[in-house]
Design a protein that fits this description.
- With 342 residues, the chain is of the alpha+beta class.
- It is 44% helix and 18% strand.
- The strands form 3 sheets. It has a 5-stranded mixed β-sheet, with helices on one face.
- Helix 3 crosses helix 12 and helix 5 packs antiparallel against helix 12.
Amino acid sequence: MNYDEAVKHTWAPEAAAPQGEAERMRALIRYATLAPSGHNTQCWRFRVEAGAICILPDLTRRTPVVDPDDHHLYVSLGCATENLCLAARAMGLAAEAEFRPEGDGEIRVALTPGEAEASPLFEAIVARQCTRGDYDGTPLAAGELALLQAAGSGKGVSLVLLTERDAIERALGFILEANARQLQTPAFRRELAAWIRFNDAEAVEQGDGLSGRATGNPQASRWLGKLLMRAMLRPKAENARVAHQVRSSAGLAVFVSAKDDRAHWVEAGRCYQRFALQATALGIRNAFVNQPVEEASVRPAFARALGLAEGRPDLVVRFGRGPAMPRSLRRPVERVMEQGEA
């Protein structure tokens, strides 16, 4: 299977309604895996139980340099949870998600018979992507911003939308400061390189990570790709690229948790996923620019600049209209699924 065939297979909607309980559970988990995750690590596992699916962290897929407290990991679980709940409702199941904090934590999604509800957000699951290219800079309509605001807010999670150019420039200053610090850290660069798939064959074989296509980089062997990365991934050039991308955007979205704990990180992920799906339904692109919330030395000043007296800024996302980029891949359901009680 080549890259284009793998993309088509990964993102195709279910061809027909699943027949039987096992097939339906597999379809729900597949939709959940189409959620985003940091570096496309796909840091989740799924366990089917009687009347429920549990989503668990896969700590073997941590990114301890960029995400030392596993914040982004639990955000990713929240994104998968939202996809699963939307897919369940589309298949005629009521879905109630509960975060269980014991041990490493898990999200249990209870599933009971209900009315089928194929919402625009569900339909957007197979079209959503993190679009790491330039946008066209045109502002969004007030009605579109209102829909994004509603979709991206949740229990204990608020959404700050920055659409004025002065506000975007202030935030950009923190993005660039944090981006430079990350790129000047050898451990960060090594971790990033470990998750880059420098060519199509590597991307298809692994089914995870950041493919050269999705990031707009040329094909290369792994040894050559790492050599080019060391030579070309420089703070000054990367900051210029990031600045151009942010300035081409219609605005920035900052997700803020009222409490800095795993339950709120999961909820932040659910809120982001609804935001991203609502944006997709409106024809709006989005991509993460999380550098100022990833760098602990920058995050407090960034929060103060936003006027936040308390809470944790979780995610920073740019949004706007622009062309699609090549899609990322996912591992097969069988590789993320555990067998629990029947």
